[in-house]
Amino acid sequence: MTLISFVVPAFRVQGYLRECLDSILGQPETDIEVIAVDDCSPDASGDIIDEYAARDQRVHSVRLSENVGLGPARNIGLDRAVGEYVWFLDGDDWLAPECLTEVAERLRVTRPDVLLVDHVRTHWNDTATRSAMAEVFPESPGPDTFRLRDRPQAMHLLHTAWNRLVRREFLADLGLRFAPGWYEDVSFSYPVLMAAHRIGVLDRVCVNYRQRRAGAITRTRGDRHFEVFPQWHRVFHLMDSWGSATEALRPAVFERMIWHYLTVLGNGQRIAPELREAFFAQITADYERWLPAGGYPVPDGVEGIKHKLVASGRWRTFSALRAASRARDAARRRARTARRTVGPVARRGARLTRDGLLREYYRAELRRPVDPTLAVYAAYWYRGYSCNPAAIYEVARRLAPGVRGVWIVRRDRVDTVPAGVEYVVAGTPAYYRVLARARWLVNNVNFPDFVRKRPQQVHVQTHHGTPVKVMGLDQQRYPIGAGRMDFAGLLHRVDRWDYSVSANSFSTQMWDRAYPATYTTLEVGYPRNDRLVTASPDEVRRLRAEFGLDPDEQVVLYAPTHREHLPGYRPPFDPDRFVQALGDSGRLLMRSHYFHDRDRRPGRPRDWERVRDVSGHQRVEDLYLVADVLVTDYSSAMFDYAVLDRPIVLYTPDWEAYRLARGVYFDVTAEPPGAVASTFADLLDLFRTDGVRSDAATKAREHFRARFCTLDDGRAAERVVRQVFLGEPGERSTRC
C-alpha cells in the first residue's frame, strides 16, 4: 500500500502550483501518490497538472467540468486515494525540503489516526511567522500518541486540513467529508481530532503556508464570510450525535468557536463595515444557542471582555472598543511617521528646486479633467519608440483613430522617434501634463513612483519579455541578484496596473506570483512579435540590404543578457574566432543589453567588416528578421526569435553561477530552444559541424515553440487595442 496520498485541489493557483508539486515530488520519501484536482480553474492550473502527470506516474490528474469548491474538490481527491494516510495540501502552499522523511518515519513507527505537523506562515515580503506549536506544546510530545480529551490544548493549533495527516481507513469509518462553502476546514479538522484515538504531533516545520497578497479568501471582503457559522453548526451537530463520547470537550470547542468568530470579525479585510453589526448579532445568537451548561474557560484580558460583550449582545460597546483600539494604533503609526519625515519635510521647504516646482505643477494638473482621447506611451524608461507599446500604438492609430497617442522619451533619444509620432520630453511641463491627464498609460516597465493613477485612468503594463530569471517579489529569495531593490515600492507601482499583457501561459503564471495584485491579465501574445509573424520575404530582403547583408550570407545575431549581480560582466566571446568558425560567408551582429546603452562598444575585432555592433539599433525586431541564427544565453530574446522558427543556440558559460545568484524559473539548458554550448570551444564546434541545425536541436525548438509561441499569430496588438481602447470583450477562453 502507498504510504501517503497527497490531495492537491487547484483553483486560480497557476503561479504557485509548480512549486507545490515540486516540493512533494522532490522529497527523498517516494512512497507517495499525488491526486491533483483541477477544480475547473479558469487559469492554467489544469494544464500544469496534466504536464506533471505526463512525466511522473505518481501524479494523477483529475479535471472537473464545473467548479465545485475546495471542500468537494478534496472529497473527489479523497475518493481516488489509495494511500494509508491522506494529506490535503493546498495548491499555493509547499512542503519544506526533506520533511517527508521524518513524517514517514513517524507514521510507520506510531501508526496514529491523525498526525499534526508544524508550519510557518510565509508572507509575500519573504518573511515568515512561526505557528503556535511552541506555545501549545512547550515540551515536545515526542512519539507518544494521545486522545484529545487528554491534551485538549491541541485544538489551539491552526484548524486547517493541510497541517495534519489522517489515516484513510479511520476517515472512511468515521464517514467524515468536507462540507461545501468557505471555512470548510472547521467542520473537518475539529471532528477529526475529537474522534481520533491516537493523535501524534511532529514539531517539525513541514508546510509553508503562503500568505498571498491578493487572491486569498482571507483578503476578500464579502458576505460569504457568514459561511463560517454553518460550518461551526456542523461541528456541534456532530457532537450532539456522538453523545457522551465528546461531551467533556464541549467547553473547549465552544471557546474555539467564539475565538474564531471574533478573529473573522476583527479582520478588516473580510467583513465590510455595513455587515459587521449583523455578523456580531449572529455570534451572540450562537453564543446563546451552544453555550455549555457548565460554562467554558473565558480568556483573560481584552479577549475576555470581548467574550462578555458578545454574551450580552452589546454591539455598540464592542464597536467603540474596537474603534478606540484602532485609533490608538493609528496615532502610534502617525507619530513614528512624523519622526521619520520631519527632517525631509523641513529640507524640502528650504529648497524649492525646479523639480519641486514641476511636481507642484503635476499635482495641479491632477485636479484638471482627464482627457478621454489621450493615450501616453513609454518604453524602457523613456529610451525611445520600441517594443510592445510601439506595436500597440501603431494598431491603435488604425483601429482607434479617435485616440491621440503621445510618447514620452528622454531628451537624448528624441532623434529615434519616427516622423509623425507625437512626443514629449521627460522632465518637461508637457511630460507632467500628459501623465496627469491621459486616459490610458501604456508602458513596458513601470512609471516613476511619483505618478498617481487617477480612478479614470487605465494603466496597461505590457512587460518586455518572457521570464527566465526570477522577477518581482520572487527576487527576494535571491538577494545577490536583487541588489537594493525596493520591494514595497515595486508593489506600489504594481497596484497601479489595470492590465498585464502576457505572451504565453507560462508568463501569466510567473507574473501572478511575481506581481500579486488585482489587475486583469491579457494573455494574448506579445504585440511586438506581430511583425515577426506578418513580415513578408520582401521585407526581410529589404532589411538585409539596408544592413549591407548579402542574400547568401549566414547572419548570426549574438544577444546576451545583463547580469545584475555582475555589472561589468561580459561573457567569454571572441568575435574574430567566431566568424572564422562561420566560414567565409558568415556575418556576426552583436547586440548588448539595453542596460549597457551608455557603454556598449565591444573591443574592435580585427575582421571588422564581418562583425557589426548593432546595440544602438532601435528596433530589435529588425535584427531578428535579418538573422539566420540567434545565439543568446538567458535573454528573453529566445522566446521572441522562436516565433520565426529559425535555429537558436544557448551559450551558457556561467549557468550554475547565474542560476544560484540571480534565480531562474526553469532550467533552459534542460528545456532549450535548440542546441546548447557551455564553453566557447563547444560553441565554435556547433557552427563548424552545423550542429545548430541537428535533428535534436530542431526537435528541441519544436517543443519550445509549442510551449511558448502558440499565441503569436500576428494579432496580439489588435487584441489589446480592441479590449483596452475599444472596450470590446476579450476572445473567449477555451477553459471553463
What does this structure look like?
- By secondary structure, the protein is an alpha/beta fold.
- It is 40% helix and 15% strand.
- The chain has 27 helices and 22 strands.
- Strands 1, 2, 3, 4, 5, 6, 7, 8 and 9 form a 9-stranded mixed β-sheet that branches. Strands 12-11-10-13-14-15-16 form a 7-stranded parallel β-sheet, sandwiched between helices. It has a 6-stranded parallel β-sheet with strand order 19-18-17-20-21-22, sandwiched between helices.
- β2, α2 and β3 (59-63) form a beta-alpha-beta unit.
- It is globular, with a radius of gyration of 30 Å.
- The two termini are 35 Å apart.
- The relative contact order is 0.07.
- Residues 594-602 and 732-736 have low confidence and may be disordered.
